[in-house]
C-alpha cells in the first residue's frame, strides 16, 4: 500500500536543488533564488510520482553555492582518503596513517544535549553533520590552463574562484566537472577517479587519482592549450623536521613523465626515519611523449613563465621551504576538434600500524616499492584501467531506475576509499565503524553493509574465513565482534555474520568456500541456537548488540535475525549434505517463527518481551516501534531466502514504522526528545530509531542510560535497510520516499553528499544502501548453482539495471516478454534462471526453442537449461518467454 497522499510535502529536510529531476512547484522567488525548495507536510501523489522518473545525473553548481562541501573519495579503495572537491581540486589528504577520529577531528557546539547530556559534538557524534568540513589543504595542489587564440593569452586556474560557472556530476566512481566561461573559445571537462573495477579489488586499490581533462575548441580559429599541474612535496608531513630535506626528481617511463617527490635525512642515515608512520613519497605525472616537467615551481602568482619548457632534473629544499613539482602538456587544437590529456597523482605511505592487531603495513606495498612504481603501473596499463572503470560507470548508470536512486544506493561504497577501511600487507581487510572510531571491523555494524560483498566479494570471503571463523572464533563457536579488540561476541553480529557467510557462498563460483569452512560455520550456528535458553526458538540470552547495551528478554529484531541466520545455515547444511544439522536448524526456525509471530506481535508491530524475572529494570525497546523489528526478513531477501516472518504481520510492522517513525520534518520530534546525536536536523526528513506509540512514561525501561539517546536519532544505515525491505515487500512509494529523505539530507548545499555520518564520518552501516538496489532489481544469485533471477520492483515492463555476479558483471534488460543478460566484464555461468512470469507456454533462446525445462510457482517461472551456459565479456543471452 502506498503512503498517505493527501498533503503536500513542504519539509525543509527534503531539499531539492533546481538541477535535480524531482518536479516541485516553486514556493516563492526567495527560495527559488537560493536553488532549493522547502517543505513542511507529508508528500502528495504528484511528488511521489516524481520519485520514479528517470531524470538525469545530480549536478551541483557553483552558481547555487553547492560546491564548497563536496568531497568525493577518489583514491583507491583501502589506500587512505583523498577528496575531489566540487571545483576539481584535491583536498583532505588523509593518507599519512595518522588514524585520526573523523575526517577533521573537532568538537562543535550544539543547541541541545547529546547522549551524555553535554552540548559539545565530537566527530563521532556528528560534528561534520552540523559543521561540514571544507578546504582542508595540508599541501598545495592544483591545475591551471594557459589558453592562446587570436593574438591573446589567458591563464585560468581550475578552481571555484576562477570560473563563472562550474558543474559537478556526482556519479561515483567517476565524477565529471565542467568549467564554463562564455568568453572563452573552449569547453573544458574533467573526469576524476581512481581505477574502480568491480570484482578486481587489487586494481581498485591503487594509491592514485587520475585527472583526465578534455578541451574542445568551439571557435573558428585554432587555439593552443597548455595544462599545468602542480603538487607540493609534503612527504613525512608530521615527522620531518630540521634534520630532513625534501627532494623532487624528474622521472619518466613508457609514454609518461613526471616528478617523484620524497624526503631524506640530511645525514644520510634514513633507517629509523623510514619507519615513521607518515614516511613515504608522491609522484605527479602526465601521459604522453611531450610532457614538460619542473622539480621546483617558481613562487608567486601564475605567469607565462610557469608554463614554459622545463628541464631541470632535481631540486632539494629544507623542510621549512616550499618545494612544488610541476608537469604540463601543450596541445594545438583546430576548430571543432578536441583533445584529452591525462594526469595522475600517486602516493605511497605504507607504514600503517594498529595496536595489538595481527597485521601491519599497507597491502599495496606488496606490489609497489614507491609512488613512482605505482605511477608506472597505472600509466602503462592506463587504457585497461581507465577503460574498465568507465565501462563500470556506464554500466551502473545505464539503468531504467532513477538517476538519484542509482547514485544514493551506490555512492556509499566510496567508504572503502576512505580511512574507515584498510587492507594490511597480509591481505587482511580491517576497518573502523567510521573514520577512526570503533575498531575491529565490528560485526554488528558491518553486517548491515551490503555493498562490499556484492562488488568486491573476495574481500568479504577472506574476512569471513580469516577473521570471523579464524582469529575471532572462540572454542564454543562465538565470534568476537571486534576481532582481537574484543573478548565477547555480539548477538546481532553473530547472526549477521552467518547470513554474510551465506551471501559470500552465493557470491562464489564454486562450493570451495562453503566446504572448507563448514565445520566452523556449524559451530557458529550452534552457538546461536544455544542462546535460546528456554528452547522456544527465540533467543533470550543477554548479550551485547549494536545499540551498545546488553538487553534481556526476547527481542523481536534479534529473534528474527537469529531465525534468518539459522535458516541460512539450514540451506548451507543441505548443500554440504549435512542433513542431520539441517533438521536441527529447520526445527529451530519453525519453532522460532511460530512463537515470534504469536508472542512478539502486538497486533500492529513486533515488540520486545521483557525477561520474566528482571522485567523492565534494564534497557530495551519493549512496546516501542523499533526500526529493526523485522530486520531478519529484510536480510532474508538479500540472500534470496523465502519468508522467515509472516508476510501480513511483516507488512503491518513496516506500515507502523512508516506511520510512527518516519517524519517528513524531524524537528518537532527531536525537540521533544533530546539526547540523540544530530544525524538529522529540524527541517529534514528521516526515520526515527524508536518511537513510543503507546505513550508510556518510561518506554525503554530505564530513565537515564546514555544509550537512550540512540532511540531518538536518524541513522542512515538503519533507514537504508528498512527502505530495502520495503522495496522487497512492494512498498515502493515508502522505500523511495525514505531513500530520498536520506539523499536530500546529504545534498551538497548543506553537507558532503559522499559522507553519510553515524559514529564518525563515512560510516560503514550506510553501505546498506546497496541492498535497496538489490531489492529494486529483485536480484537473486547463487554462483555455485549457476542460478540467477530478477524480479524488478519498479517498471517491470521496461526495466534495465546492472548486475554483479561471482566472476562477471553486466546489464539485465526486461522488455515485455524479452529478457537479456549482456555481460560486460569477466564471465558468467548460468544453469537456472528465474523471472516473475505466469501463464508460460514456451521459452525461446534467441529465435529458437531452447532445450530447457520450466515450471511456474507463486508467480515465478524457473527455467532449467539442459546445458550449462558460459558467457564471456561482450556476449549476451536473450530469452523470450511466451
From TrEMBL:
<feature type="signal peptide">
    <location>
        <begin position="1"/>
        <end position="32"/>
    </location>
</feature>
<dbReference type="InterPro" id="IPR006311">
    <property type="entry name" value="TAT_signal"/>
</dbReference>
<dbReference type="Pfam" id="PF04685">
    <property type="entry name" value="DUF608"/>
</dbReference>
<dbReference type="InterPro" id="IPR006775">
    <property type="entry name" value="GH116_catalytic"/>
</dbReference>
<dbReference type="InterPro" id="IPR012341">
    <property type="entry name" value="6hp_glycosidase-like_sf"/>
</dbReference>
<dbReference type="InterPro" id="IPR052566">
    <property type="entry name" value="Non-lysos_glucosylceramidase"/>
</dbReference>
<feature type="domain" description="Glycosyl-hydrolase family 116 catalytic region">
    <location>
        <begin position="492"/>
        <end position="769"/>
    </location>
</feature>
<dbReference type="InterPro" id="IPR024462">
    <property type="entry name" value="GH116_N"/>
</dbReference>
<dbReference type="GO" id="GO:0004553">
    <property type="term" value="F:hydrolase activity, hydrolyzing O-glycosyl compounds"/>
</dbReference>
<keyword id="KW-0732">Signal</keyword>
<feature type="domain" description="Glycosyl-hydrolase family 116 N-terminal">
    <location>
        <begin position="71"/>
        <end position="384"/>
    </location>
</feature>
<dbReference type="Pfam" id="PF12215">
    <property type="entry name" value="Glyco_hydr_116N"/>
</dbReference>
<protein>
    <submittedName>
        <fullName>Uncharacterized protein, contains GBA2_N and DUF608 domains</fullName>
    </submittedName>
</protein>
<dbReference type="InterPro" id="IPR008928">
    <property type="entry name" value="6-hairpin_glycosidase_sf"/>
</dbReference>
<dbReference type="GO" id="GO:0005975">
    <property type="term" value="P:carbohydrate metabolic process"/>
</dbReference>
Amino acid at each position: 500500500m502506498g503512503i498517505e497522499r493527501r498533503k503536500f510535502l513542504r519539509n525543509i529536510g527534503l531539499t531539492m536543488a533546481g538541477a535535480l529531476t524531482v518536479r516541485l512547484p516553486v514556493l516563492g522567488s526567495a527560495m527559488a533564488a537560493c536553488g532549493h525548495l522547502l517543505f513542511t507536510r507529508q508528500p502528495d501523489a504528484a511528488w511521489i510520482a516524481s520519485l520514479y522518473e528517470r531524470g538525469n545525473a545530480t549536478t551541483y553548481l557553483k552558481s547555487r553555492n553547492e560546491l564548497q562541501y563536496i568531497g568525493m573519495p577518489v583514491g583507491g579503495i583501502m589506500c587512505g582518503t583523498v577528496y575531489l572537491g566540487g571545483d576539481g581540486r584535491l583536498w583532505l589528504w588523509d593518507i599519512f596513517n595518522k588514524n585520526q577520529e573523523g575526517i577533521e577531528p573537532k568538537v562543535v557546539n550544539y543547541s541541545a544535549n547529546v547522549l551524555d547530556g553535554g552540548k559539545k559534538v565530537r566527530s563521532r557524534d556528528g560534528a561534520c553533520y552540523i559543521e561540514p568540513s571544507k578546504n582542508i589543504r595540508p599541501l598545495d595542489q592544483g591545475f591551471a590552463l594557459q589558453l592562446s587564440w587570436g593574438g591573446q593569452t589567458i591563464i585560468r586556474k581550475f578552481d571555484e574562484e576562477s570560473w563563472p560557472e562550474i558543474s559537478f556530476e556526482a556519479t561515483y566512481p567517476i565524477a565529471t566537472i565542467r568549467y564554463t566561461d562564455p568568453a572563452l573559445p573552449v569547453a573544458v571537462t574533467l573526469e576524476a577517479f581512481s581505477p574502480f573495477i568491480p570484482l578486481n579489488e587489487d586494481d581498485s586499490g591503487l594509491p592514485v587519482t587520475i585527472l583526465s581533462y578534455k578541451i574542445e575548441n568551439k571557435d573558428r580559429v585554432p587555439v593552443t592549450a597548455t595544462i599545468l599541474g602542480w603538487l607540493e612535496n609534503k612527504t613525512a608531513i608530521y615527522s620531518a623536521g630540521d634534520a630532513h630535506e625534501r627532494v623532487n626528481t624528474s622521472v619518466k617511463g613508457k609514454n609518461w613523465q613526471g616528478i617523484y617527490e620524497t624526503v631524506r635525512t640530511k645525514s644520510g642515515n634514513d633507517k629509523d626515519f623510514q619507519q615513521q608512520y607518515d614516511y613515504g613519497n608522491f609522484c605527479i605525472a602526465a601521459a604522453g611523449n611531450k610532457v614538460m616537467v619542473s622539480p621546483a615551481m617558481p613562487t608567486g602568482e601564475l605567469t607565462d613563465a610557469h608554463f614554459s619548457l622545463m628541464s631541470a632534473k632535481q631540486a632539494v629544499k629544507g623542510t621549512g621551504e616550499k618545494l612544488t613539482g610541476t608537469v604540463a602538456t601543450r596541445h594545438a587544437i583546430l576548430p571543432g576538434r578536441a583533445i584529452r590529456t591525462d594526469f595522475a597523482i600517486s602516493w605511497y605511505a605504507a607504514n600503517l600500524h594498529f595496536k595489538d592487531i595481527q597485521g601491519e603495513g599497507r597491502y599495496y606495498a606488496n606490489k609497489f616499492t614507491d609512488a613512482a612504481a605505482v605511477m608506472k603501473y597505472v600509466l602503462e596499463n592506463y587504457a585497461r584501467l581507465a577503460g574498465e572503470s568507465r565501462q563500470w560507470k556506464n554500466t551502473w548508470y545505464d539503468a531504467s531506475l532513477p538517476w538519484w536512486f542509482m547514485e544514493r544506493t551506490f555512492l556509499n561504497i566510496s567508504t572503502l576509499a576512505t580511512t574507515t577501511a584498510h587492507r594490511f600487507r597480509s591481505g587482511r581487510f580491517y576497518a573502523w565503524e567510521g573514520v577512526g572510531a570503533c575498531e575491529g571491523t565490528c560485526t554488528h555494524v558491518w553486517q548491515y553493509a551490503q555493498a562490499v560483498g556484492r562488488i568486491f566479494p573476495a574481500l568479504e570471503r577472506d574476512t569471513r574465513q580469516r577473521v570471523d571463523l579464524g582469529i575471532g572464533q572462540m572454542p564454543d563457536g562465538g565470534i568476537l565482534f571486534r576481532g582481537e579488540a574484543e573478548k565477547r561476541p555480539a548477538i546481532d553480529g553473530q547472526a549477521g555474520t552467518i547470513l554474510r557467510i551465506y551471501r559470500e557462498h552465493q557470491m562464489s563460483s564454486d562450493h570451495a568456500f562453503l566446504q572448507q569452512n563448514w565445520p566452523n560455520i556449524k559451530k557458529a550456528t550452534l552457538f546461536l541456537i544455544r542462546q535460546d535458553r528456554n528452547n522456544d526458538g527465540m533467543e533470550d540470552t543477554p548479550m551485547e548488540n549494536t545499540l551498545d547495551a546488553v538487553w534481556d528478554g526476547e527481542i523481536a529484531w534479534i529473534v528474527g535475525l537469529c531465525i534468518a541466520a539459522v535458516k541460512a545455515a539450514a540451506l548451507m547444511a543441505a548443500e554440504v549434505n549435512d542433513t542431520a544439522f539441517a533438521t536441527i536448524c529447520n526445527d529451530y526456525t519453525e519453532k522460532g517463527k511460530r512463537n515470534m509471530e504469536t508472542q512478539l506481535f502486538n497486533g500492529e508491530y513486533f515488540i520486545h518481551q521483557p525477561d520474566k524475572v528482571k522485567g523492565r529494570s534494564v534497557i530495551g525497546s519493549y512496546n516501542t516501534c523499533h526500526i529493526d523489528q523485522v530486520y531478519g526478513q529484510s536480510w532474508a531477501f538479500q540472500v534470496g531466502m523465502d519468508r522467515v516472518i509472516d508476510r501480513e504481520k511483516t507488512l503491518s510492522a513496516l506500515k507502523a514504522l512508516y506511520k510512527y517513525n518516519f517524519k517528513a520534518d524531524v524537528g518537532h520530534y527531536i525537540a521533544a526528545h533530546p539526547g540523540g546525536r544530530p544525524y538529522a536536523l529540524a527541517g529534514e526528513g528521516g526515520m526515527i530509531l524508536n518511537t513510543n506509540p503507546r505513550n508510556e512514561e518510561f518506554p525503554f525501561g530505564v530513565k537515564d542510560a546514555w544509550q537512550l539517546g540512540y532511540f531518538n536519532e536518524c541513522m542512515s544505515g538503519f533507514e537504508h535497510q528498512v527502505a530495502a525491505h520495503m522495496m522487497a515487500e512492494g512498498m515502493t512509494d515508502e522505500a523511495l520516499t525514505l531513500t530520498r529523505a536520506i539523499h536530500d539530507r546529504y545534498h551538497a548545499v548543506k553537507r558532503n553528499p559522499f559522507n553519510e555520518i553515524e559514529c564518525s564520518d563515512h560510516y560503514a552501516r550506510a553501505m546498506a544502501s546497496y541492498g535497496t538496489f538489490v531489492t529494486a532489481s529483485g536480484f537473486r544469485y547463487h554462483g555455485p548453482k549457476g542460478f540467477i533471477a530478477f524480479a524488478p520492483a519498479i517498471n517491470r515492463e521496461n526495466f534495465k539495471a546492472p548486475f554483479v555476479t561471482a566472476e562477471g558483471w553486466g546489464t539485465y534488460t526486461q522488455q515485455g516478454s524479452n529478457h537479456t543478460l549482456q555481460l560486460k566484464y569477466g564471465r558468467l555461468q548460468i544453469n537456472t534462471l528465474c523471472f516473475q512470469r505466469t501463464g508460460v507456454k514456451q521459452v525461446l533462446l534467441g529465435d529458437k526453442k531452447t532445450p530447457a525445462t520450466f515450471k511456474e510457482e507463486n508467480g515465478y517461472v524457473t527455467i532449467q537449461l539442459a546445458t550449462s551456459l558460459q558467457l564471456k565479456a561482450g556476449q549476451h543471452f536473450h530469452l523470450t518467454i511466451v
